[in-house]
Amino acid sequence: MKKRLIPLFFLLVVYSFGQRISGTVFLDENKNGTLNRTEKGLPNILISNGKDIVVSDPNGAYTINAIPGNLVFVIKPSGYISELNELNIVQSYFHPLKKNIKDYDFALYAHTENKKTKVALLGDVQVDVIDDVHHVGKLVTEELVYNRPDFIMPLGDLSFDNLEIFDPLAAVLGLVGCPVFYVIGNHDLNFEATTLSERDASFEAKFGPSYYAFEYGDNLFLVLNNIRPLPEGKYKAQIDNDQLEFIKNLIALKKDKYKAINIAMHIPFNEVNNKDALLKLLRPFDDVFITAGHTHTQYHNYYKRALQKTAIHELVCGAVCGSWWQGSHDLRGIPFSIMHDGTPKGYWFMNVEGDKRELQYKVSGAPATKQINIWVPEVNEWDKSLNELNEPFVYANVFAADENTQVEINFGDNQWLPMDKHEGVAPELKRLYKLQVLGRYKGQPISAFPETVKNSKHLWRIAIPENMKEGAHLIQVRAMNSNLLLDVRESSVLWR
């Protein structure tokens, strides 16, 4: 019996890990997806199976092993792109074992790319029903069509455990008319999967590999899947071993070309329980930028490194959906759903060229200049219950700020005074929740807004001067941070 089992096991291993995929990466000049005699192979293009990376030879030829559960994909080189489908998703991959493919040619097209790349970063869109997809269309698609980036990166939690909503969401984002590079989130997993390789089956069927890399302009991008599923629908933030091997191989091949790397993941870096392994791999890069979502708040983190002068900069991008599309609706039928730190719903733009990076937050439905919420006490006669929220302070919520941002206020006398960094709940959220408790939203078919207890990381305040004259005062708040290229101001009316 042992004599039969050993050869059988050997055959299974050979089939699973020994299947070889060969083909050619070529410039598809007539864009028909087929390698013709007159078309040339492209050398030095990277192809991966999610662990190993091979390089195409001078004729564009490559050979790579298939790994069960993994896609085989091209690492997009600068100046080229694979075919985009009708949803503007890059078709640079295939599933060799599911389709029993042994030969596959990758078609690439010439693609004009500026050295400076403009990226739209979308924190959790987290759509569950078609109503939420309508909101994304109004808040994101309709704006980006007229302020189009080079590409879009949704940063995970595309759905709210409803994987069938992938199709309508992708259709709406695809209307912007630029490539969309998707990141997987914890709510995008197949939690019923019995193996790690199947955790991303639904995501990969629609969007391609759940971790990958690509070049655009003069920039290198690395997209990670940092969610490991656990029993009963739970998960932990961890990067699996195959993925770490992929990262190691990528960096070995690209460290001499790039001094900077841009990384996208869903769960913030500080929550990843094997982040030290990733930190070690990233040592060759002088500049490391990480962007994430997940928290439904937004903030900056800086991680000092022992061997590099420059700290790793992480931007947690908040959520397009705010607080899960909850709360009363505005005139367009969109929930207020302010984020848990008082930030209005929106997304980020990143202009990047090597280690030079410009970041700007865009409040959906508001002018680009809207960067601060100013909160002043108001004495109301119509709804006197709100007067209970009044405090003798002016608050400033600076959406894009970090802890090193300088915030100042002018009470109308041309004297700029520093405001104090405040660890507390944004007053806008207190007001919304108060109105809900008072029953102001009863009768609306809405999802209730949760009571917020999280402190904002970008809130400042100052006591109102006791000697201010009675009457109306035009006050101004300005926020400045040279490292973030932040220089914004906002005005408000204060009654005394």
Automatic annotation (TrEMBL):
Domain Calcineurin-like phosphoesterase: 118-297
Top-rank taxon: Bacteria
Domain Calcineurin-like phosphoesterase C-terminal: start-end pairs: 314-481
GO molecular function term, any single one: hydrolase activity
Species in which this protein is naturally found: Cellulophaga baltica
Pfam families linked: Metallophos, MetallophosC, MetallophosN
Domain Calcineurin-like phosphoesterase N-terminal, first and last residues per copy: 33-108
Name of the protein: 3',5'-cyclic AMP phosphodiesterase CpdA
UniProt-listed InterPro entries: Calcineurin-like_PHP, Ig-like_fold, Metallo-depent_PP-like, Metallophos_C, Metallophos_N, STPP_CPPED1
